Amino acid sequence: MANCENCSAPLPPNSIICGYCGSRNDTDLKGIHRFTVTEPDTERICPRCTISLQTIDLKIDGTFLIERCERCLGLFFDVGELEALIKASVTHVYQADRHRITELNNNLRNNDYPTAYIKCPVCSTMMSRVNFGARSGVIIDRCPDHGVWLDGGELRHLLEWVKAGGEILSKKREEEKKKDEERLKAQKIRRVPYSQTPPPADFDLFGHDIKSQAPDIFKVLYKVARWLVR
Hints:
Number of strands: 7
Distance between the termini: 87 Å
Number of helices: 5
Mean pLDDT: 78
Order of helices and strands: EEEEHHEEEHHH
Helix content: 25-40%
Shape: elongated
Largest sheet: 7 strands, antiparallel
Structural class: alpha+beta
Strand order of the largest sheet: 1-2-3-4-7-6-5
C-alpha cells in the first residue's frame, strides 16, 4: 500500500488524495522508471486546471515524453503512448484474477470530478469519453488526433488492473464478440432472400411460368392423390 508523501499515512485504495492531511500524491512514476523534466516543444494546457502542462521524460527505450499537471497530477499521453507505457511496465501476466479485478473496481474513486466532457490539451476540442478495456473501471478522455488524458490516480489503477489480468480478460471478450459477429454474418448469408414485391399471378415464387408447367403439375397432383388413397 502506498503512503502519503506529506504525512506518511496510508493512502486509500486507488486514490492519490490522503484521507488524513488531504494532500494530493503524485502517481508513482519513479516506481516505473526514473523520469526527468524537460522543456515542452509546444504549450499544452491542463483540461482540469487550465495551466500549462509539464513535460517529463520517462526514459523508456531512450526518450519517452508525456505531459503532467503539477497541480492536479493528471497525465496526457500522445496516441499509442499509454499502451506502450503499460506494456513496458507490466510483464509476465498470464491469467485473469476476476476477484482482484472486482476488488479494484469496488475501491475506485470516481467522485474527484463531475461527469463532463473536457478539452484536449493540444487542440482544445472536446474529447470523447471511452471505457479503457473490459471492466477496468476507468473512463478515459480521448482525442482521436492527439492522445489520451488520465486524471490523477487513474494510471495507477490501470496498472493494477493489468497486473490482475484485466487486459487478458478484455482481449478474450473482444475475441468472443468478433466470433459472435462472424457467426451472425454467416447465418444471414445462408438465408434465402425473398422478393419484397409479389410475383405476377401467372408465375410462381421463383418466377417460373405456371401455364407452361401446368401438365407437369397435374401429373404430380395425380400421383399424390393415388398415394393418399392406398
